[in-house]
Design brief:
Largest sheet: 7 strands, mixed
Helix content: 10-25%
CATH superfamily of the largest domain: TolB, C-terminal domain
Structural class: mainly beta
Number of helices: 5
Shape: elongated
Number of domains: 2
Distance between the termini: 20 Å
CATH architecture of the largest domain: 6 Propeller
CATH class of the largest domain: Mainly Beta
CATH topology of the largest domain: Neuraminidase
Number of strands: 31
């Protein structure tokens, strides 16, 4: 992952596209004020973790706002917020039927009062709700205003409260995603993922050409066709620039955290090594080399390390190099260390945002499957995340480190190899589910930096 705000790297090999990195700037003009209470840290890595039961009634409409548009915004906003919470794997959301009787007695004070009454909380506690989100819509001068708050029922406190003004009907989903990010941060202490973007390679049909796609964190939008060699693409101007077109491999580009330096896999006469180059172009420089291949470079977010794959001792394994920065555009390798010693073939390392864990794909020769693993940057505390679900490869952490997106050729969740699709899971390997891209095939995902609220 990298922090260059307007561009990403495109790199291609023969008959395959490799895309690493995207930052996509989302701008909104609707947030007017907000409140965030004390954080409620939900740690998915804790052995005591359990999902929070959440209730989100349809948003309240005042007397001037009861129109077909108002009803549509009320229902779609509440429905989208519930869907976002479910997607995180941290929440179970209650069906509206569970609190239908409660809402027949709802008063406007539920939405306007800054203090939650104990008698009101008791009503929600009685149906076991632990998190309650209430929204109120008003309409004036052709524009909508949403006041929304999320209450921790057990503590009786508002953990997030916001007001979004001067928006039209089409903006309700982006607004709810912004609000969802704020709620996720309140519960986990980390930024949400709902305004982040995925990039991946896909095909619309079995015989179609591979293309690059940009999608929402869970959706799908066509992007552009690919070109050979290594390119940097500006997401605002939608212009690309060739960085490296030397004959041979030019692939796997990855920006340093400062966005002023990138590493990629290059080859001369078939020998693959890791090179560096400026995002503005220029001459590539040899960065890491050795006997055998050196590929898949990825900088740690703190800029202190570079994980990569090397075959210098036989089969490909994960290595990590310690870096010394002489300037913003000049990093040197102090030393490197082999991290993996098991598995026939280990590849595509991916860092957590905190630079404290590495995910990677490893080939288990005994079962003829690629699976995903997690380890510390020194190779200790190795954990297996997938098993008996086809091949699982190309992991990439979400911007908040809570999830991993990856590609898998499992069929109906079983250990049968089919066509690659994108999947997501919690960082501990739980809650694995398919992302519906609408494509025949989807692979090699990466996840953008999130821009928060």
């Amino acid at each position: 992952m990298f922090k260059s705000k307007n561009c990403f790297v495109l790199s291609f090999e023969i008959a395959a596209i490799k895309l690493l990195g995207l930052v996509f700037l989302c701008q909104f003009l609707v947030n007017s004020n907000s409140y965030a209470g004390p954080a409620l840290i939900v740690n998915i890595d804790s052995p005591n973790f359990r999902k929070i039961l959440s209730a989100t009634p349809n948003f309240y409409l005042d007397s001037k706002s009861r129109s077909p548009d108002g009803i549509e915004i009320s229902e779609s906003g509440a429905r989208e917020f519930s869907r976002l919470l479910t997607f995180t794997g941290l929440f179970n959301t209650m069906d509206s039927a569970a609190f239908a009787d409660i809402m027949t007695k709802a008063s406007e004070s539920w939405y306007t009062d800054s203090v939650v009454k104990p008698t009101d909380l008791a009503i929600w506690k009685a149906i076991s709700a632990e998190s309650l989100t209430l929204g109120m819509l008003s309409f004036d001068a052709g524009q909508w205003t949403l006041s929304i708050k999320t209450i921790d029922v057990a503590r009786g406190e508002v953990v997030v409260g916001k007001k979004y003004s001067r928006f039209d009907k089409s903006q309700i989903i982006p607004i709810i995603r912004r609000y969802g990010d704020a709620v996720l941060k309140a519960y986990t202490g980390k930024s949400g993922i709902f305004n982040s973007k995925l990039t991946f390679v896909g095909k619309t049909s079995v015989n179609a050409a591979k293309q690059i796609y940009i999608s929402d964190f869970d959706g799908y939008t066509s992007f552009q066709d690919g070109n050979p060699d290594l390119f940097v693409y500006d997401t605002q101007s939608r212009k690309s620039k060739k960085l490296s077109g030397i004959k041979g491999i030019n692939s796997g580009g990855n920006f340093a955290p400062n966005g002023k330096f990138l590493a990629f896999t290059g080859s001369i006469n078939g020998d693959a090594d890791i090179y560096s180059i400026s995002p503005n172009g220029g001459t590539r420089k040899l960065f890491i080399s050795g006997t055998g291949l050196d590929v898949d470079p990825t900088f740690s977010p703190d800029g202190k390390m570079l994980a990569f794959v090397s075959g210098r001792f036989g089969n490909p394994h994960i290595f990590v190099a310690s870096l010394k920065w002489n300037s913003e555009t000049d990093a040197r390798v102090i030393n490197d260390k082999r991290l993996t010693y098991v598995g026939w073939y280990n590849a595509t390392p991916s860092w957590t945002p905190e630079s404290d864990r590495l995910a990677f794909a490893g080939y288990d020769k005994e079962i003829d499957r690629f699976d995903l693993f997690l380890m510390n940057p020194d190779g200790t505390k190795l954990e297996r995340l997938t098993l008996r679900t086809g091949d699982n490869e190309r992991p990439w952490f979400s911007p908040n480190g809570q999830n991993l997106v990856f590609m898998s050729n499992r069929t109906n969740g079983q250990n049968i190899k089919g066509v690659h699709q994108l999947y997501i899971m919690n960082r501990d390997g739980s809650n694995q589910r398919k992302l519906e891209t609408g494509l025949f095939e989807a692979q090699t995902p990466s996840w953008s930096i999130n821009f928060g609220e």
